[in-house]
Amino acid sequence: MKSPCAGLLLALLLAAAVATPAAEHAPGASAIASAHPLASEAGNEILRAGGNAFDAAVAVSAALMVVEPSGSGLLGGGMFLLHRASDGRNVVIDAREVAPRQASRDMFLDAAGNPVRGASTNTALAAGIPGEAAGLALLQSRYGKLKLAQTLAPAIRLARDGFDMYPRLQAGVGGKKAQLMQSAQAAAIWFPGGQPVPVGARVRQPQLAQTLAILAKEGVETFYKGAIAKQLVDAVQKMGGIWTLEDLAAYRAIEREPVVGRYRGATIISAPPPTSGGVALIEALNVLSGYDLNKVDGVTRKHLIIEAMRRMHRDRAVYLGDPAFTAVPVQRLTDPDYAAGLRTSIRLDRATPSAALESAPEAANAGTNTTHFSILDKDGNRVAATITLNAGFGSGLMIDGTGMLLNNEMDDFSIKPGVPNIYGLVGASANAIEPGKRMLSSITPTFVESPRGYMIVGSPGGSLIIGMVLLATLDFVDGRSAQEIVAAPRIHHQYEPDTLTYEVAALTADEVAELKRRGHDLRARDSWGNLQVVIYDAATGKVSSASDPRGVGTAGLY
To answer: Higher confidence at residue 286 or residue 3?
Structure first.
């Protein structure tokens, strides 16, 4: 339960949404909403230099690695949802990490078959083969107008010359101290003299600047087959990891078709497996399409959204995984008729216990990790990108000489059926560990297109991501502004644990009492997520954008 002071702070923050970094501009504007002002400015610099949204996406991604290292990095991965205006093509660049070739199903279990504490989160074994460098290179070469050296230049400058430490980052660094201090170079960067860098002091990352400069000069080959690859493998193996040069050389970013659904006249375009985000989002919207949410009372509306969330997360746990390794029933899960069947078990007056939903035969807390940005350029090209190291700062283990942090994405696999990961998500054999397999994700970069116009949206938040994008989609369809969408208080349910989590401002005292009466178990908690939204208004041609007031990001129009 969050403290009364924390609840009051959040309520005041959301009430003061007019102060959210947001913007609105005339037709023909470009827009960038990201988790840090310097990252947004890096993208703007590239747009001013003649780049398009895809060039800007590379610049924003690289800058975020520097100024928000808790959320992403070159040794992480993610997904980039793209819309190319010239031909209307929508495509996803899947830069998700993969399990090393020496990985095995039970690698994080002890002799008794129980999970080894911390093995899948705090060790070099926890690191999947990274995809972000390959994803950025593919994005740049196939869709951008500029060269990689140009789009990486702002991040190189930020890493070399530094930026001012800010409270959110300082708190994250402090929470990861034990891991970061295992590297002499990480300790020198983040804990000079043994103490965290003071707020307002300069943070410089010379090794990361050098790594980015090598990548800019030599290209992605050096990362997966050249000198950097050898440096990575040697370091990971010395730390007890199982990466090989063959693992890195075999990695490929993949272009995938988005998943597409419809809700109340809007078209939903989102990321496909191996993320669960798009499938789960469309499934939940299909369930809700059977109700007129604007004609039911407020508490019933929330009750129905909770029940849809419960069912989408149940199916996530059972069916979703890497489509190269398991048959993922995407067509069935996103079919309106399937959702109609799910609705038959929903009661308006009573919560459905999660244990009452049929589960897989074997099946017995998110922070400020991950990052998202949304971009629109003046020509109508769009990017919704969610990139991550998994937990904040990944494993927290730095590869000395590179400035890069290892991800801990292996924890996103189901390390044992029914055993929750760090986000409380459970899974089954569809997401079991296998060599070369991409672990399941919740990232949900999304476009929502309607007669109103369109929205570019996404957020970090682990298991909370899909629900945030669901709520944002409902708000967009209901006509709310970008600023209102990012500031709206949130509710969340993920099937297991069978608990409704909510920000204090999301529910009135009467709604809390009524939801409890209907059988929901409730828990208030501190704010979550960092939603980044860009909206194009079809009627006026105006562009608006907003960055979540819970974070430190900015939304700019250029």
So the answer is: 286
**Short-list 130, 208, 214, CA closest to 406:** 130
- 224's tokens: 């997966």
Distance CA 320, CA 544 (A): 34
Supply 434's token pair. 């296998």
**302 CB-near residues (< 8 Å, 6+ apart):** 491, 507, 511, 515
- What is d(CA 558, CA 551) in angstroms, rounded to the nearest whole number? 21
- If phi > 0 it is left, if psi is from -120 to 50 it is alpha, else beta; for residue 142 that is alpha
State the average pLDDT over residues 26-47.
Answer: 92
Q: Are 412 and 351 in contact (CB under 8 A)?
A: no
Residues in a beta bridge with 532: 458, 547
Amino acid at 13: L
Residues 6+ apart with CB under 8 A from 4: none
Rounded-to-integer distance, Cα 554 and Cα 21, Å: 5
**Active-site residue flag, 370:** yes
Strand order in the sheet with 500-502: 491-492, 500-502, 522-524
Predicted pLDDT at 227: 94
Given 211, 222, 370, 446, which residue is catalytic? 370
Q: Does 329 sit behind a cis peptide bond, omega within 30 degrees of 0 on the bond before it?
A: no
Q: What is the 3-state secondary structure (H, E, C) of 7-31?
A: HHHHHHHHHCHHHCCEEEECCCCCE
Average pLDDT over residues 491-495: 96
Helices (H), 268-383: 277-288, 298-319, 330-333, 336-343
Task: Single out the residue of 30, 137, 31 nearest to residue 93, CA to CA.
Answer: 137
> Considering only CA atoms, which of 312, 322, 514 is closest in space to residue 432?
322
Task: Tell me the pLDDT tens digit for each residue of 537-555.
Answer: 999 999 999 999 999 999 9
What digits encode the pLDDT tens for the residues 421-437?
665 565 567 889 999 99
pTM of the predicted model over 0.70: yes
Q: Which residue type sits at 111?
A: A
**Contact at 8 Å (CB) between 527 and 9?**
no
